[in-house]
Amino acid sequence: MTKTAIATPDEPNRRKRANKNKPKLRDGVMKRGNTWSYVIRVKDPETGVSKPRWVGGFESEEDAKAARDEARVKARRGEYIDRNSITVGEYLDEWIEAHAVEIKPKTLADYRHLIERHVKPHIGGLRLQAVRPARITKLYRDLVTSGGRDGKGLSSRTVAYVHAVLRKAFGDAVRVDQLLPSNPVERAKRPRMQRSEPGKVWDGAQLKTFLDAAKAHRLSAFFHLAAYTGARRGELLNLRWRDIDLDGKQITIAGSAAFVAGERIEGTTKSGRSRVVSIDADTVQTIKSHRQRQNADRLAAGDGWKGAENKENGHVFTTAWGDPIHPDTVSSLMASLTARHNKANPAKALPLARLHDLRHIHATTLLLAGVPVHVVAARLGHADPSITLRVYAHVINEQLVEAADIFAKQIKAA
User: Fold this and answer.
1) 166 and 216 both lie in a single domain
2) Which strands, in side-by-side order, build the sheet including 35-43?
3) Do residues 42 and 130 share a domain?
4) pLDDT tens digits, residue range 357-384?
């Protein structure tokens, strides 16, 4: 026999009390537990179907209403951002993979290094949508004070690189992936940039002393070309014989070479464009002598020569058996050649200089000689003369001091 539930006389009143105490939704806002939430309807851009979106955790009803109103405006504009639990580390992993096809291999490797070493350990576990400008500012402060090896601080230049990578990545999170309403990196406070002004570590006489000391080495032409053209290390190591026009006294800088994860990578120049650089008669002779030396190496190696079969496609600077040279080789060679000279000539010892300083010597010498900035910029491969002006501002300022006297002399002589 089936039992029938019989409502007690107090049942209707109990239900009324329960409904009375149940949280009520008022204009899209209601209290859930100890916090307030709001709900809005958002149209899916792909399907066109409108779906409810709940957002909670507000301390007061006023906070929930304010957030609701802002969300409604964004929803009408199609700018509403759904909540997402992806972390900074997870997003950066996806971001770097998506950009691998459009970033140069060397640049990509630098991005990965900065992210893995300086970003993930600090904010990689944070939810992407929870990152605020103040947290990015703290990241920069931590990197400057203790972000390097052995707890030492990083340079402001390195922190600036970190900032550039994060600004690009978070910017894509806003514009491309639509995970953020705005870019918190744009509003973060960076450490003041301490710009070091590249100077002439060596004067003209010291440069000549070094080049004379290096003449006995089979790669002496590399250092001569670096000083007399201002080309970057990777650009010269990528140079082919077909890029050199000795009759026209010019070379074409068409690309650059680098080693990434033990693999030689050849690509475009830093600016992405090739350029033609004029050379003087002595440099032409230096290149001719270098080619004779390389031909001798080729004959000595015989079938063991590993260079290109077509000489014109071969690299200008190679090992004695024809392989392309590793970038670190020429950098360390310059230091060892300088040390050898200093040991043999203590009275004429040269200050220590980096290979990249040869590029700075080239630029500052031309600027101090009055060569127009746009001409120097073209030789260096700067995408815009403003870069040259910024990097070598101290040299330009020296010329500005003399400008008044030069003008006065010209007027008097008229």
Assistant:
1) no
2) 29-32, 35-43, 50-58
3) no
4) 999 999 999 998 889 999 999 999 998 8
In a domain, 250, yes or no: yes
Tokens matching residue 129: 């949508």
pLDDT above 90: percentage of residues in the chain:
49
The Cα 89–Cα 119 span in angstroms is 8
Q: What is the CATH number of the domain that holds 257?
A: 1.10.443.10
Structural tokens at position 305: 């020569």
In a domain, 387, yes or no: no
Structurally, the chain folds into a number of domains equal to 3
Given a cut of 90, whether residue 313 has pLDDT beyond it is: no
Distance CA 157, CA 135 (A): 20
For residues 129 and 123, give the distance between their C-alpha atoms in angstroms, rounded to a whole number.
Answer: 12
Per-residue pLDDT tens digits for 381-403: 998 888 888 888 877 777 766 77
pLDDT tens readout for residues 201-256: 898 999 999 999 999 999 999 999 999 999 999 999 999 999 999 999 999 999 99
Query: Residues 154, 148: contact at Cβ < 8 Å?
Result: yes
Structure tokens at 96: 């770097």
What's the predicted TM-score (pTM) here? 0.68
